[in-house]
Design brief:
single chain; 133 residues; alpha+beta; Alpha-D-Glucose-1,6-Bisphosphate, Chain A, domain 4; five-stranded antiparallel β-sheet; four-stranded antiparallel β-sheet; 3 helices; 27% helix; 44% strand; globular
Length: 133
């Protein structure tokens, strides 16, 4: 189950939270290596950027991780814009909670942000399923 919270403060944001039926270390490692499972053409460059064909053209993703703290923050860029995405993996016994916050990029309209946030919710659901299977 995905839990979606929308915040209308200074910068529009959306928080997506979901539970994964795996221990935290497994989830952390799986997310770091998920791009090829989500995008078959994904290749990781020597500089740490994953390059692949995303839903809206050529895309790249780079994690800024800290395993000890469960931090999987990342930068995602495609032709539409750049997203700085805070992501956390939190232990919950034999399960893990994944928390992702999306901030509306400055060049996005509210409508485009809503469309992309819904799209990202679907990607997160597929990521959860890939990690659990």
């Amino acid at each position: 189950m995905l839990i979606i919270q929308e915040h209308n403060m200074q910068q529009k944001s959306r928080t997506i939270t979901f539970t994964v039926n795996r221990k935290t270390g497994e989830v952390f490692d799986a997310i770091l290596n998920i791009p090829p499972k989500m995008f078959p053409d994904a290749v990781k460059n020597n500089d740490g950027w994953w390059m692949f064909q995303g839903p809206h053209g050529e895309a790249k993703l780079k994690f800024q991780e800290n395993a000890e703290l469960g931090i999987l923050d990342h930068v995602f860029e495609d032709p539409e814009g750049k997203w700085d995405v805070p992501m956390r993996v939190v232990s919950n016994g034999e399960f893990s909670e994944v928390v992702v916050t999306l901030f509306k990029p400055p060049n996005f309209t509210d409508e485009l942000f809503e469309e992309r946030a819904k799209e990202i919710e679907g990607i997160m659901q597929k990521m959860k399923e890939a990690i659990e299977n």
